[in-house]
Structure formats: structure tokens, C-alpha cells
Amino acid sequence: MSLLQSKRQLNKANTLTAIIIVTIIALVVNIFSSQLFTRFDVTANKDYSISDTSKDILRNLPDVVNVKAYFTSNLPGYLVNTNRDVRDLLSEIETNARGNVIVTYLDPNQDEKIEQEARGLGIPTLQFNVVAKDQYQVTNGYLGIAVFFGDNKEIIPLVRDTSSLEYDIAAAISKVTRQDVPKIAFLKGHKAFTRDADLSQVGQLLEKQYDVRDWDVTSGDLMPEDITTLIIPGVREQLTKREQYAIDQFLMRGGSILVLQEGADINPSDLSVNKLNTGIDELLAQWGVRLNKNLVLDVSSEMAGFRTDTVQFFAPYPLWMKITKGGFNPESGIVNKLESLVMTWASSLEVLKEKLTDKTQAIDLARTTAQSWAQDDSFELNPQRIEAPKKEDRKSFVVATMLSGEFRSMFSKDSIPEPHPSPLLSKGEGKTEKAKVSDEEKNEFSGSTDKGRVIVVGDADFPVNDNVNRFKANAVFFQNLVDALASDEKLIAIRSKAVTDRPIKEVSDRVKNTIKWLNILGVSVLFTGYGLIRFARRKKARVEI
């Protein structure tokens, strides 16, 4: 055998050995890597990773939580991504729960019992348009999730948007595993916005986490003791002293209050303004916040539609202020992850430091830009007539603030208002007997508290259905405020993660004009300069020749 043949055989043997070694290494790596899982999420909001807050909730569960996903296997093409995203999220939840969450996928279309189970849970049957055999067909399907813990259950009937699914599942798990669900109440009466009509959408969102009720302030009765948080959604009529007292005593016993209230009422049909005297402003002033009876305008604003006798038009409306990232307090976990909020016809707030004690903390949550101004007496709401003042007359206004700690009552034991009169049948129809303050009520009177919490927003309109439909971030802001008062702040970070508004930064007129003229003249100047340089070089080259 020649030397060349020996070298060829040796090379073949080495090549075969290398292939075998690489194959063995690949198999070993695959075996070990199947036991490990890691990935990198480079999206701005970490859209494809669960938050640290979710991980904390999952790792501290008291026992096993069962999650059943009622998903049809053969979904139409436009829902394939939704199906994949849901499965990825549930897989990551199950992994981070370390055995405390068991996820089961069920297809109701494949089993009649499972279909009946899904319907019994309130998961609706959906109809999808699909193409089969070159024909459009309508098929039934399911896209619901149910969370079980012992006898408790929470249902997500329909997964519409996976961007908020992490919050929905975390909220459901949190609710079913809690021993006591916080009870919150919406004040009812005196033309306040109602939970079943004006605020139905945010009301339904709160029901995912809380036991939500209504409290009729006109009854004159004190707040039930099991309520922890009261929402005052825009009162438009004067409260009686007894009704003020009922609200005041709720705070004095350590309750939390969210006040959504303007200082002026707007009639959208004719754009007329009426300054409000409701008694809410008196309570707030006693607790340390002045609600101004003005309307705040800002150059950072949203578009609004208007109609004249002949035409309908849209225009930037300074009275529909847009609070952007810089307007939220970066030191407050309630709002520091938010990016936008639209307030319609809002009033400004001021903290009355003389009413605060050294045990009261005040922190502003949201404010307008420095290019804002206010209308106090001469109100002009017509967008074609609104004139902005000079720059030196503009400033930033606080429109949302929070106080916590010590508060003092507006009343004393000797000035407790009498209960509302009640009819006496024995004295004839229509006659009433003057009720008296009982000794028991006097004994239970609280003149102060060191555990109160009050959030005031100078706008009651931002969470109504129309505004929530148009400005999605408004609902997030509202929920964050309620969570902060109802002691469930851990969910704020998860909910705020889904907010993706990226408003354009507001710049001065000078900067706008500079950018405009650079766009108009910049390209021409660049090409002209390039041509002159080329001409000079060619001329120089000819001279050298």
C-alpha cells in the first residue's frame, strides 16, 4: 500500500470519527437542553414574559390552582396567533408556579360533556367563518378560561386580547385564593354617575377583583361596616349635612375614598357651564384638598368633534387634556408606568397644607404640562373662540392627588346632624317625625383617624363608558386608583404593562417651525451642496491635467 493510500484511509477514519463525536455531542446537548428552558424577551413592555409580580403571586399560592382552557383545536387562521400566545403564557405560568398551577386544555367540540361543562361555567359558544373545500362555512368554537381553587372559581368567558391576559389570569388566581374579598361601594344619588349605566365597563372590570355594591347616600344611613373603599363618581347636587356626615365618618373609621369630582358642570349640548355646589368640596377642604371651581386647558389635548348648523368638524380641544408620561409622578407606583390619560373638562386641585398634620402624607399623582391655563369665571368652551394666554401666564396644574394618614372630622360629637326624617303611619300619610341622634351613634362618633386614605381626581368623566371606549388607558388609571385604596397594589404593575400608548412629545412652536423648514429646505440644501462639491472637484481635476 502506497503512502498516499494510507493517508487517504487515515483521513477517512478521522472524518468518520469526527462525525461520530459531533453526533454524540449533539445528542447529549439535546438531552440535557430538553430539561432546561430559557428565552430572551427584548420587547419594550416584556410582552412575552410574565412580570415579577405574577411570579410572586404564583410562588406564594396556598395550594394547587387548576386552570382549564376551553379552546377549540381547529381554530380559523386569524386566531392561530391568539391560540399560540395563550398557550405560551399558560405554559410560562405553569412553569413559574412550581407545581402550584395545573393547566388543562379541553376541546368542547370533541366531547359533549366538556361542551356542557363549558356552557355551565358561562363560556359562550362562538361562531367562526372558515374556508373549507373552497367554500365559506360557519363553525362553532370556544375561547374561554376557568380558574378553580377549592369551591371558588373565576371565569374568563372570552379571550379577546392577549395583551391583558396575564392581568386577567393573575387577578382571577388572586381572587379565588384570597380568604376575604375586599368590598367596595359606588356612591349613589344626587345625579352621580351610576355603576349600572354610565360606569358599567369599569364596574365590570372591578368585579373581577372585588365585591362591588352601590350605597345610596340619600338614605342618610351610615356606611355598612364591611365596606372598605368608597367611590364618589361625580355628585351634581347639594348633599345634606347628614349625607356629608355619613361620608365623613366612613373616612374617620379608617375607610378609603376615591373622589371623582369637577368644580363645574358642563352641558355638552350647548357647551354651557354651571359651577357646582355639592358639599363634596367642603369635605375635601376639611381633609386638606381644595377643589377649584374652574376648567383647566392644555396645549397637550385630544381631538373632539363638533357640529354647526351646516358642517361637522374635528379639532384639537384644549379642554380635553391629555396627560402624558411626564405628567405622572415617577415616584408613585400607582401611576409611574402609565403613558397617557385623557381628562374631559377637568378642574384643578390644591393641597391645603394648613389642614394637614405632621402625620398626613400628600403626593400628587397627575398634572398638566407647563403650557396650561385655567378659566375661572369667563368660560369659553367653543373651540373656535378659545384663545390661549401668553406663555408667561401659563403653568402646570395638579389634577389628581392622594392624601393618607391623619384626618380630622368636619363635625363634632355635639354637631352630629340628625337622621333623615321617616314617615309615621300613625300620624297620617305624608306626615313625618323628626328623628334624633341616638346615644349609640354619639358614642361611636370618631373625631379623627390616622389610617385614612383619600384620592381626589378633578374629573368625574374620564371613566365613563364613552371615554373608556375611546381612551383605553383611562380604565387602567381608574383601576390603579381603586387597587391603591383597596390594598391590592401588586396587580397595578401587571395591568400597566399592557398599556402601549406612545404619544408624540409636545414641543414648542419654535421647534415645530424649525423642523418644518428643515423638511422643506433641508433636502434641497444637501443636494445643492453635494453638487457644488462635485463641481469644485471636477474643476480642480481639469486644472491639474
Automatic annotation (TrEMBL):
The keyword Disulfide bond does not apply. Residues 182-467 form the ABC-type uncharacterised transport system domain. InterPro entries: ABC_transp_unknown, DUF7088. Residues 45-147 form the DUF7088 domain. It holds the Pfam family DUF7088. Keywords: Membrane, Transmembrane, Transmembrane helix. Residues 411-446 are annotated as: Disordered. Signal peptide: none annotated. The chain crosses the membrane at residues 12-32, 517-536. Residues 428-444 have a biased composition (Basic and acidic residues). It comes from the Bacteria. This is Uncharacterized protein. It comes from Candidatus Komeilibacteria bacterium RIFCSPLOWO2_02_FULL_48_11.
